[in-house]
Amino acid sequence: MKPLKRSVALVIEGPSGLLLVRRPEDDESLPGEWGLPAATLRPDETEEDAVRRAGRDKLGVEVRPLRVLGEASGQRPGYRILMRDWAVEIVAGEPEVPQAGDGTQYESWRWGEPADLVPAARHGSLCARVLLRERGIEPD
To answer: Among 16, 18, 47, which Cα is nearest to 118's?
Structure first.
């Protein structure tokens, strides 16, 4: 059986919409797609701690986890994935990308609408699918 990779995505709502990030063109799974900031849990890390780390490492902000919005699972070539979307709020700092950290670093960010996630969902983004389902938007 393939190993299980647990991941979290941040759903940050602001006065100008939903915070979206763009993956680099050389990203192995979703090149150039607009999506949600996300991180994979480290061994023995709680989801809440991973959410906070994602805020710091991916956006340069401190966030407060509020609640789980939904989850989805899927198969990737070398692993299974369980993705949970978390509603979070920024409690300190202003988003800035890219950050000087490990893992995927995003090229840019902007405020957008949930419907802006449809292309990523169609290309296999689980976090986009979770949020669209939660908002009643069908990506297909």
So the answer is: 18
